[in-house]
Amino acid sequence: MTELIYYSEPDRSLFSAKILEIREDKRGVSLILDRTCFYPEGGGQPADKGSIAGLNITDVQKTDDAVLHYIETGENGDELPAEGSTAECEVDMEHRLDYMQQHTGQHLVSAALVKVADIQTVSVHQGEEYTAIETSAEEIDALTIAEVESEVNRIICRNLPIKAVVTDDVGLSEFNLRRPTKRSGKIRIVEIPGTDCVACGGLHLASTGLTGLAKCTGSEKIRGHVRLLWKLGKRAYNDYSLKSAVTDELSVLYSAPLAEITARCKDSLEALSRLKYELGQMENARAEKAAGDIAECGKPWSESSKVHTVILENESSDYIKNLCRSLSDNDGGKIFMLFNKSADKTTWAIVQAGDTDFNFNSFSSEVLKPFGVKGGGKVPIWQGILAQPEKLTELLESIS
Which end of the chain is more exposed for a tag (fewer CB within 10 A), N or C? Predict the structure, then answer.
């Protein structure tokens, strides 16, 4: 029903087409054209983006009888072109080129994996950030990945032509396929002479050189296999530009050449770790001293409520934690309620020091809940946040 011109003219961005039919299903409204340069999703390659008669395309899908171009429409669909009319169409070529680079680059990577380490490709995902290639290997060392990357970029630099031919089940035997195909009837073969040959319905570049650059940026385990993450084409250049900018800034910050940045970073992290430890020790000592002072201070203490209130400001969560622990070690049989005020919130903690008949649930229900105090815990420490910090003074009066 639709002439597929994306194979014959993959670099074409503008074309006219007659609207044969307008359909609607649960996915939305779609147009069927007499010819199309919009590639439908398939073979791991996402659908093209663009517009038809000024309407944005949201998806392109190929069915048994048609290519469906799903479009954005208003609530009433008033802007839809009429069946039988001719529409001007535009392919988003930046998106198209990106995924042509991804698909071509993936073929090069899969071929290099076989050549370098006899590793097969199990599955491929062409995402918006990277192209992921699940391999048949359970482990791949860094040296092998580097050799694969080097081989891919070598083939890119050779700028080999990429050919696509259509054959059938009989003619298939003439091709040395990298992996067997389950396709039958008309079979499209994508071949890079001396490098790769595979049955594929995706869009590819005219030559390997147009891929530009390939860089493996990571690996992960999936289903017991290694999955390699690749930046291909413009994505690889953008990744290099970003990392170059970051390392340049680090070089300035550390007043060191690029080769010394890693060592300088390690030294800084070790120094920071030591400082954090020393600061922690000082905070522990300060908390222990403060706990002793609070325990001895009787002024805020109320025999009627048995709650000793303490107001703190802008203390760290670690300091509050250490202070609560130190107060709980006190055997005075008192209850301490701490409030820590900061610019954005007021937190609280209740500490039971020694043996006492304090019932937190009753205290919370009768005294704290009316003031929007939220939180909980268990003997000897309860913690939370004061949802209405403006009521702190009123809360303190009710406690005393």
Answer: N
Sorted by sequence, the CB contacts under 8 Å of residue 68 that are 6+ apart come out as: 23, 30, 31, 32, 40, 59, 60, 61, 62
* Nearest in space to 240 (alpha carbons), one of 367, 372, 345, 149: 149
Report pTM: 0.75
Q: What is the secondary structure of 366-381 as a DSSP string?
A: IIIGGGTEEEEEETTE
> Contact at 8 Å (CB) between 32 and 69?
yes
Which residues, other chains included, contact 342 with Cβ-Cβ below 8 Å and sequence gap of 6+? 313, 314
Calculate the CA 175 to chain-centre distance: 39
- Asked if residue 134 lies in contact with residue 225, where contact means CB atoms within 8 angstroms, the answer is yes
* DSSP code of residue 162: -
With the CA atoms of 268, 274, 277 and 279 taken in that order, what torsion angle do they form, in degrees rounded to the nearest 10? -80
State the amino acid at position 377 in one-letter form.
G
Each residue's pLDDT tens digit, 139-171 = 999 999 999 999 999 999 999 999 999 999 999
Polymer length of the chain: 400
Query: DSSP secondary structure string, 173-201?
Result: GGS--SS-----SSEEEEEETTTEEEE--
Structure tokens at 189: 């073969």
